[in-house]
Amino acid sequence: MSTASIVGDSLELLTPLHDAEDPELSIVIPTLNEQLTVADFVRWCHEGLAEANVSGEILIADSSTDATAERALEAGARVLRVPARGIGVAYREAIAYARGRYVLMGDADCTYDFRHLKPFVDRFHEGYRFVMGSRWKGTIEPGAMPPLHRYFGTPLTTWILNRLYSTHHTDMHCGMRGVTRDDLLAMDLASDSWDYTAEMMAKAVHMGLPTTEVPVPLLRDRSGRVSHHKRVGWFSPWQAAWINLRAMFVYGPDFFLLKPGLVVFALGLLLALPLGVIGPITVGPIRFSLYWMLLGTTLAITGLQAFLLGCIAQVFFDYRERATRRWLKVFSYTRSVIAAAIMGLAGVACTVPLIAYYVSHHEQLTVHAATQDRLGVTGLMLIMIGFSLFTFTLVLHAAAIATRRSGRAG
């Protein structure tokens, strides 16, 4: 026997006869046509909860067209029927119906052994709020992971994540991961597809969550089961990698902007200002003159724009409000507006002599730029345009996500 209730326009919650009354741990799993394995998976979860001596529930967010929901319900899981709109959407729909203090996520294909979930519970009880599984610290059964994923895709994307966010993860794509329910709600996941993994890890960093890893084994797919990537086609892993990279870049654009921007800005000033004040300078065989000054100006403008956009990007995902307070203090409104006005007026003053000279001598001026000169100036312009477009794209997408989050919170 089970009970069913309509909880939304397109959602239906099915509860088993023997439902947990006050679970400490919620195992939240999205499923799509997993009737071959889901019953065994639910039984594994019950065994794991018993071994960990923790009260828990299994919540299946199901978008299947086969008998997955019925078999999961019979095995003792809650089933939330959701439309098939992506794994990220399924997680977002299910989070609201998870009742435990801690949430453990994973797959229902029996490739992750939930009979041994105790290490996750132990880490939660030790005070960690985000617990990642690691197949690299655990074991990978022969044939469980395609060589492309094992030796190229996962190591590369994990390395990029660690560089972007100064983390020390060993396996960013491990499907078995845990987080406190309050933190999961605060993350307000926006991703619809596989990029939810990168979004979770980026936001865990932004939120300053105490994080650790635990070893997990990866088992082979059962005979007769076809993985989701194989169902979609050969391009699915590449698509998943691309959207995860996009998420890592969008949620951490300040990596490309803050420190690199300051370095480029300082280098530009070092080139442009001495030449502007002193004039051409000869160092050994190199004569630094107008064209070097033009290069320095390009670098200074590009670097400053990058740095300022990086400050804005930090504010978008500043869950602890540290960056917001810091940049508002550094760039206080009155001081910044006055500084901008002074620099603008100084720029006009520096330009007036050039304009006056041109007006009085324009009939005698004949300037013939060589091909390499014209191409050089065009190249510098294209550099600024290209970099501006790149940084604008990152910050635009970050702003769109932050605005959507604020709108939902309101």
Blueprint of the fold:
Blueprint: E1 2-6, E2 12-16, E3 25-31, H1 38-52, E4 56-62, H2 68-75, E5 78-81, H3 87-95, E6 102-105, H4 118-125, E7 130-140, H5 147-165, E8 177-180, H6 181-187, H7 196-206, E9 211-218, H8 228-232, H9 236-251, H10 254-277, E10 281-283, E11 286-288, H11 290-316, H12 322-330, H13 333-361, H14 371-409
Parallel strand pairs: 3-4, 3-6, 4-5, 7-9
Antiparallel strand pairs: 1-2, 2-5, 6-8, 7-8, 10-11
Helix pairs in contact: 1-2, 1-4, 5-9, 7-9, 10-11, 11-14
Low-confidence stretches: none
Instruction: Please tally the β strands and state the result.
Output: 11
Characterize the biggest β-sheet.
9 strands, mixed
**CATH H level of the largest domain: which superfamily?**
Spore Coat Polysaccharide Biosynthesis Protein SpsA, Chain A
Question: And the CATH topology of the largest domain?
Answer: Spore Coat Polysaccharide Biosynthesis Protein SpsA, Chain A
- What count of structural domains? 2
Counting DSSP H or I runs of 4 or more residues, the number of helices is 14
H/E series:
EEEHEHEHEHEHEHHEHHHEEHHHH
As laid out across the biggest beta sheet, the strand order is 1-2-5-4-3-6-8-7-9
- Which oligomeric state applies? single chain
Secondary structure class reads alpha/beta
Shape: elongated
